[in-house]
Amino acid sequence: MEVLPEVDCEEDVTITDDEEDDEESSLSNIRITHTVTHIAKPRPQVALSKCPSSYKENSSQEKLMAAMAENFRQQYALLYPDRKALLLCPVNECSVQKFVSTTLRSTLLPYPELYDWEGCASFVADYLSLELLDPPFELPKQLSSPTWVLQTQRGTCFDFSIVLCSLLLGAGYNAYCVSGYATKEMCLLDQSRQECPLLQPQIQDKTEEPKKPMKKYSVKPPRDLHSNFERRQEEKQQAEAEAATLKKQLDAERLQKERERPPPDPLRGLRVHCWVLLLSGNREIPENFFIDPLTGKSYSTTDENFLGIESVWNHQNYWVNKQDCTFGCNEMTFDLGDLSKWEYVLCGQSLSIISDPKTLEEPEDEEEEMDELKVFEMPPSWVTTIDISPADMEMRYPGGMKVIEYRKAKLEKFAPYLLKDGLVTKLTTYKDLDCTKASTIKEWFKHRSDHLDERELHTDSNVTTEHFRPGRSDALKYHRYVTLVPETERQMDFYSHIRTDGLARRIEKPFEMTETFENRTDFLFYRNAVYGKQIKVIRAGEALEQRPLQRVEERFHRDHSKPASKDVAERIFVVSDRRIQVTFHLEDDRIIPAWLNFIKPKEAADSQKAQAFTPQMVSGFQVDPSTKPYTNLQLYEMLVELMREEENVELHIRDSEKEVRSILSSREKEDSNTDLLISIYNPTRNEMARLHMEEKERMAKEKKQRQKEKELDLLAPSQVRLGLPEVLTSQDALQLKTDCLNEFKQQLFNKASLIQSRIEKETEELQKKQLWYQKNYLTMSNEDEDDYLAYCSDAMFRIHVLKMRLIRHKERAPQKYLALEEKLKRHPRLASHFL
User: Fold this and answer.
1) Are 741 and 817 a contacting pair, CB within 8 Å?
2) What stretch or stretches form a coiled coil here (predicted)?
3) CA dihedral 308, 313, 318, 321 (to 10 degrees)
4) pLDDT at res. 827
5) What pLDDT does residue 3 have?
């Protein structure tokens, strides 16, 4: 929610009397001077010609309702002369007095977001801009219709409540508008002393882990030999230290609150405010609560921000509060059927709707008295149907954006597609209350082609973290970095189930890179590479700077298809020392694993031969002494295989380095030139979708036009015989008419003949079947006789249907003939000759 920028919330209050009298006299002696005039931009003028008649005039029911409201106001002023006037019949945007209950228009919009109270409250708070009441202790003189408020996206707190209550009533809630008094911060929409909701820690359900059942023959735990006295003394000292720390923390918080406490408000308890009350019952609402339409937040009915209530109303009735609000709303009850605490304007069916079940159990005498009362129902709403277009729902905020200032935080919200980089929410936290030194900047994005979802920058450490949605070609999920320069400190998380190598995380430092994997077929889950200082390497005739590998460590999960003594758990390639260390998995009944160390033979140089393999180049340990030791050939083959694996590992590491550089390069391009994804179902923004829809509509029109052109012309066959003359004479017209009627008469005769021939054919076949039956009925079986009877039944049915068709054809033939004759007389080419 945003407050219109020309409004200044600072007020200077001067009390002219030297001594304080009662509340009424002190209020009359308050002189309010504004440092800046507290007037918002003037509302746009209403085009009366475009307004419906219900906006510009009152019906007979509304006039009667206004008269009843005026009578109620006079009685109220007589009984309660010290209370403020009620908001009963303010004028609307067309300067016509309307009862407040008829301004509500129950509406359910076709957006799932607006099906619950949280969505409705959030939408109203985001969609509208606030106009402050002037003066703040007076009721508004104008209460606009919800349609006008939504059109201008501006209104007072009363306009906010009317719109929100209309949406809640449409969604099935038992909602009411409340006119009362609230604190200065709530009336002025000042959230600068509140914590940002996005910074509040989410409450997580702490579920206790189920205790493991003790087995009957389990090993008993060792006896605890520590002194219980010493343990209690330590716990006591620790509790005292925690209590002292907590006391210091509470004192510091108290002092901080004292420093941040706003100055006393001279208008406390006098500032008029309007909010929404939701009563329990409908939509599974367990208890009553308030909704502030300016922020969209819910509050308890005993919240200290609400200082008093004058009246409540919905689309059926209006109630005046008769309870004492000296201590706010703490002791108030909201049983609107209790006449000792609430006074209604209209008596009728609405009382039974809002009353509690206990109050419904009334004596029969009271029910008879209620029946005897003359019931006047609330007039229907004069407001037209509330409608919000999808474009307005998407734009959401006035002008597409809004800014909310919280305590040490600033929240900025933007409509989708408003900014080129897809930014929709930006939260900046500060170190000081003046919001001058930024601490963190957190951004949320939508519809980006690079699938960036969230980015956070810590200004102190200059560390940036990015979160990505699934869909990237590199499967990047999370990126933490200081700079996008390669070979610097960073962390990358990936969607491992998408990648073929199962990479889940890559942590890079200037001289180290660690990778973790998931669900690999070779059971590898950890790889750590240590580098040396950069050196120049010549590759393909180019001099490149590269970090040489010093050490590579790999770890593997257990492969149960192999014995533990043969299954590698860890292997370390010490490239700088030309050594390879292999450690196998620990066997179930052992405490030390088997291992082997290899020293790689020196390769051939210019003046030296390659070093031959010797058994002294291998050292190891076997857990089971009875196991047959490895032969020299086996050791040599293992060394050759490990040297080949070392080369492959180095290639994988170099590929990882290339991938890092590729990701960083693509991230730089994506940030500098961001593309937004547009759905194919959004033709307003998707150019290809719009062109496709236009092409589809054009083809449909052309198809319809071709169908019209292909319609049969009754005169076409006869015109061909006449040589298709452009101008018809009277004789030609008569000839065309006669030919058409004769052809149509012949078609009718042919159809009758066809039906008659089918009747004769069916009758002939039935007679043949009957003669066959008379000759063979003595030798027929029961099945043959059943088949004969079934055939006769079907044949008689077909003959009956054909006879009915023939009769109907003969009855309709003259009518069709006359209809064709009349149609020919009205034909464009023959009408001039016969009319």
Assistant:
1) yes
2) 686-713
3) -10
4) 77
5) 44
